[in-house]
Amino acid sequence: MSDNPPLFAAREPIFPRRVNGFFRRLKWYIMAITLGIYYLVPWIRWDRGPNLPDQAVLVDLGSRRFYFFWIEIWPHEFYFVAGLLIMAGLGLFLFTSALGRVWCGYTCPQTVWTDLFLLVERWIEGDRNARLRLWKAPWNFTKWRLRITKWVVWLLIAIATGGAWVFYFADAPTLAAQLFTLNAPAVAYITIGILTATTFIFGGFMREQVCIYMCPWPRIQGAMMDEGTLTVGYRDWRGEPRGKGGAKRKAVAEEAGSGGAQQARYGLAAGKTDADKDHAAPRLSRSGEELGDCIDCMACVNVCPMGIDIREGQQMECITCALCIDACDEVMAKIGRPRGLIDYLALDDRPPVLPGEHAPVRPMGTEAEDDGAETGVPAPTAAARSDVTSDGTASQQVAGAAAPAAHAADAPFVTPHSRDWQPKPVWKHVLRTRTLIYTALWGLIGVGLIFALFIRADIELTVAPVRNPTFVTLSDGSIRNTYDIRLRNKHGEAREFQLSLTDAPGLSVSLEGAPGDTVEVAADSTMLQRVYVVAGPDDPLARQERSEFRIWAQDTASGERAYRDTIFNGRENF
User: Where does the record place the region Disordered (predicted)?
Assistant: First the structure.
């Protein structure tokens, strides 16, 4: 038997714990709004007049029309849809470059329906510990009852999801009656079946796997983010080293040694307080070791729907849902520390360090290594320290205070961040060159679409000359050209259109199947009309190879006009 590990590991189920806090409430609000929009919008009515659908939002595939309240998009106006898709892409780039994967964490359909399914699961089976016990329990009557109940509710949600989708493509009340009486088109039942299956499986059994393996965005997001992007992160310079311990007053910590370094670390020398969220509190373990604010309670891991530990750094699986922030803030409140150990951070929010340093876990001097202290911060050499000259004496002042004159080996090493460093304000992370460019492009496209929407005409026409033959010579020697004209009436009632010519005084126009030069076009429809343009035998245009002229269509009721330029072919072609 082979000792090689399997190519794919079995999925480890994740049971997120319930958490309360600002971001969890924000996710509830967004979930309620997005689900409300999805399920209820097809039932909103909008009066467009006779012979037109009264559904506010409708994708009418039969008529090849898209209705959105007072806006009607025709097939030839697909550039509006293309523009909206471009705006959606730029908006995704904008929010990702500014705030990381906020789309994934708050408004992605996979996230929204997973939250809904988790709510049902927690309601039926209990919170994290109860679900863990149920998962490990044998299959008895209680376990079957709870699982079947949960699956039935999930299935009902999935059916409602698939049903709501098809209502966007037909009149919702009519289609609903047809579905219940089994008279709906087969494509409706097939669509509902596919969406029901995908919602049930993805939301119930493939929650994090969809985000990790099926969605391409986790692998693309790296190109959208930079060191100034705000995303969920862990202040390791404040939280490390982790461990259980009691909060101590400053005096107690100073008694343990390195009082000057302690003051510098906690910002006390600069007039700060131990409530600064970027500096750790004076905490000591029972053995006297200095600890950070993280008590290693695993609360941030237990609430994560992706099952990751944010303290290990930014990871592809993180969807920036910020539930770990709520969980950590709750723990910090219990131990009397300020919020923000886990928070929305950027890479350039880290305190600055000198050459030779790693993350400033705790301040130390060159004596720390000799004492065997496990700080995780190697002491830089005198050559690497900007506050020490080549002979090992101090040469700079830090935050206006006189630097110690002693040799570097005789004084604790104080990093600049512990005295005068402050993180960037949020607005500097949001208003950066990249985000401003994205915002400008997004706004320009939006303004362009709005402008195009308001200047578009209610009547349109297209002119296509018939090429076979290019002209016909009549019995009296006149030259006739044939054109197919498509008239488009966007009004809610039938309109009469009068056709006329300009730039060609010797030409006359007649309509096939219609007396005179007027034709009626039905409400909100397109009509194809064949038109004949004739030049008399003695007219100069009849003898010229090509002559340009303009065809006009005028709404006889409103006076609105539209035109197209085209060509008249004379007998000199041969």
Answer: 355-401
- With tokens 């950590």, the residue in question is 328
**3-class state of residue 292 by DSSP:** coil
Domain boundaries, the chain: 22-223, 226-248+284-352+416-424, 459-569
Q: How far apart are CA 170 and CA 53, in angstroms?
A: 9
User: Which amino acid appears at position 301 of this protein?
Assistant: V
Planar angle of CA 456, 461, 465, nearest 5 degrees? 145
- Tens of pLDDT, residue by residue over 203-234, are 999 998 998 888 888 888 878 888 888 999 99
Q: Which helix (H) or strand (E) holds 462?
A: strand 459-465
Closest residue by Cα to residue 488 from 548, 567, 560, 550? 560
Is-contact 568 535, C-beta < 8 A? yes
The tokens of 371 are what?
A: 């004492």
From the list 373, 418, 533, 452, the residue with the least C-alpha distance to 77 is: 452
Tokens for 406, please give them.
């002693």
pLDDT in tens, 339-390: 889 999 888 887 776 444 444 444 333 333 333 333 333 333 333 334 434 4
pTM (global) more than 0.70: yes
Alpha helices (H) along 398-462: 417-420, 426-430, 433-455
pLDDT digits (tens, 9 = 90+) for 453-509: 888 877 788 899 998 888 888 888 889 999 999 988 887 778 888 898 887 788 888
**Residue 317 and residue 118: Cα distance in Å, rounded?**
18
Phi-psi region of 462 (alpha: psi -120 to 50; beta: other; left: phi over 0): beta
Superfamily for domain range 459-569:
Immunoglobulins (2.60.40.10)
For residues 555 and 516, the answer to whether their CB atoms sit within 8 Å is: no
Closest by CA to 55, choosing from 42, 73, 71, is 42
Distance of alpha carbon 294 from alpha carbon 342, whole angstroms: 10
Nearest-CA neighbor of 326 among 298, 296, 303? 303
Q: Which of 276, 549, 273, 322 is nearest to 423 (CA)?
A: 276
Q: How many CB atoms lie within 10 A of CB 536?
A: 16
Residue whose tokens read 């004496």 = 393
Sign of CA pseudo-dihedral 377, 382, 384, 385: positive
Rounded (10°) CA dihedral 348, 349, 355, 359: -130
